[in-house]
Amino acid sequence: MQIWVDADACPGVIKDILFRAAERAQVHLILVANKALSTPRSPFIRLVQVPHGFDVADQHIVSVLEPGDLVITADIPLAAAVVEKDGFALNPRGEFYSRENVRELLDLRNFIENLRSSGVETGGPSTFSKNDRQAFANQLDRFLARQKR
Considering the entire predicted model, what is its pTM? Predict the structure, then answer.
């Protein structure tokens, strides 16, 4: 099992949690981004830099993902593709995507996109909070503990 990170939009505090978890659990963590990112020196952590372009990082992750891998992303279409390939997808706020909820979330995302494109002001996500960070860390710890069994 490897952990893949859709790293361009991933909050720094979440990357820090992932860096520590990769070392502690000795799990390979691969950040995929279209720009250079700073990562700790570790045999468990690496960066894959992909070309700039729409969904290039997402496409890379889906192309190399193995069943059982974990992907960290807030991108619902990417999460849907991960779940379809029998991977696990966790967003930075600590919510797992599943076959049961990802279709509904994708439909909601598309509905909101349609509203925005027609000029309706929909606002954005709430500010990333300490509770979000804690929820993510807790879910990640539980996931990694289940993988060790």
Answer: 0.86
